[in-house]
Amino acid sequence: MHILPLLALAASAEPPPSTETATLVVDSKVPAEVLVDGQKLAQLWAPGEVAFQIIPGAHALRLYTNGDASDFPLVLAAGGEVRVMVGRTGISLDDSADPTAASDDEAQTVPVEFRTMGRGVQLRLDRQRITLTEGERKSVELAPGNHRLSVRSQDGTVIWANGTLEVQRGASLVVQVAEGRMPELSGSGRFHAGGG
């Protein structure tokens, strides 16, 4: 589901000085309500993704999940994008610059950002080990295709999720991980549980 309303800071008879906008993408894995500057933009009754074109500048984002409000300050740059992921394990957001022309080498990889909510975790991605402490984020460039991924306790002794991370060609991929949970993805990819 994609909704593209234009949110102005204040109603005015004059058009805004620039028609360039910023994009706010909310990818929610749970029911949520989205407000920007006190204006209700969406009520998601089921998991879904919505996108909004918003006037650049400073804004206040409020998300309601399970009756609880979470507030985040937003600074949106013209032509930029902010992606918010609302998952069962928490809410995270990033500030991605407007994509520019990529070189041939860059075009063949996809930026993948791993975020942890709650306690630290250890990831085993293909042949590498990535340790994330509480609230930490790490980005890697991955080729499109399937990559082995397991999510473990920080010391690596308890496996919470094991499977394949399918990376698809696209702008970016966010993988949110937490103790005792399957990974939650936003963007160009999927997680397939199972395997050795």
Question: Can you tell me about this structure?
Answer:
This protein is mostly beta strands. The chain has a five-stranded mixed sheet, with no helix packed on it. 27% of the residues are buried. Helices cover 2% and strands 59% of the residues. It has two domains: 20-96, Sandwich (Immunoglobulin-like), CATH 2.60.40; 109-193, Substrate Binding Domain Of DNAk, Chain A, domain 1. It contains one helix and 18 strands. It is globular.
Could you give the topology of this structure?
Blueprint: E1 6-7, E2 22-28, E3 32-36, E4 39-44, E5 48-54, E6 57-65, E7 68-76, E8 81-87, E9 90-96, H1 104-107, E10 110-117, E11 121-125, E12 128-132, E13 137-142, E14 145-153, E15 159-167, E16 173-178, E17 184-187, E18 189-193
Parallel strand pairs: 1-5, 2-8, 10-16
Antiparallel strand pairs: 2-5, 3-4, 3-6, 6-7, 8-9, 10-13, 11-12, 11-14, 14-15, 15-18, 16-17
Features of the shown structure:
single chain; 196 residues; mainly beta; Substrate Binding Domain Of DNAk, Chain A, domain 1; five-stranded mixed sheet; five-stranded antiparallel sheet; 18 strands; 2% helix; globular
